[in-house]
Write a structure and sequence with these properties.
The protein is mainly beta. It is built from two helices and eleven strands. It has one domain: Jelly Rolls (Sandwich), CATH 2.60.120.10.
């Protein structure tokens, strides 16, 4: 049986270059449904080399972090989340911010390029796959900012999320932006 292609794709989601969303076309039969979640030929971003399965409690916010080298893939399997995004790359999209609401009932992939700060807020219990174009070694996780800094420009909704202490201790967006720009890898992002 030949699989249909995903049903939609956007390569510059809400003005942020490189952020993509791609809905999937489930194939239903008497057993349930099947969705293809990745094909190299779709060329959404560099090929993932690591996949993680993440289980978040409701009202948890992971982030906000930015990667200098790595593309991220996010596929919600069950639950609802809001992904907050702000472009840290100097240029036409600098400081452009948006949110993407994702729901396991409507399967899609979201790709996030290097240089786009992002956080993931669990509106409910959340199960998702998280793909990485560069294997995680901790070296790309040191840049971030507070989720509630107005300069970040992300509307999380009326939330008081549960965060790790390391995320509560992150600096403001201006500090993140300066640190990102000062790193040599940021020129290639």
């Amino acid at each position: 049986m030949k699989m249909p292609p995903p049903i939609a794709s956007t390569s510059h989601y809400a003005g942020i270059v490189g952020v993509t969303t791609r809905a999937f076309a489930p194939i239903d039969d008497i057993r349930g449904a099947l969705c293809e979640i990745h094909r190299d030929e779709w060329a959404l971003a560099p090929r993932p080399v690591q996949w993680d399965f993440i289980n978040s409690k409701p009202n948890v916010l992971r982030g906000v972090h930015v990667h200098r080298l790595r593309w991220d893939y996010l596929i919600v399997l069950d639950g609802q989340a809001r992904i907050g995004l702000t472009d840290v790359r100097r240029g036409i999209g600098f400081r452009h911010a948006t949110t993407i609401d994702v729901d396991g009932g409507h399967p899609q992939v979201v790709t996030i390029p290097p240089g786009v700060a992002h956080g993931i807020f669990s509106k409910s219990r959340l199960l998702y796959l998280y793909g990485l174009s560069v294997a995680w070694d901790g070296g790309d996780e040191d840049l971030g900012c507070r989720y509630d800094d107005p300069a970040l420009g992300v509307d999380w909704g009326a939330v008081t999320p549960l965060l790790l202490q390391r995320d509560l201790d992150l600096p403001d967006f201006e500090t993140l932006s300066r640190r990102y720009e000062a790193h040599p890898a940021s020129a290639s992002a």
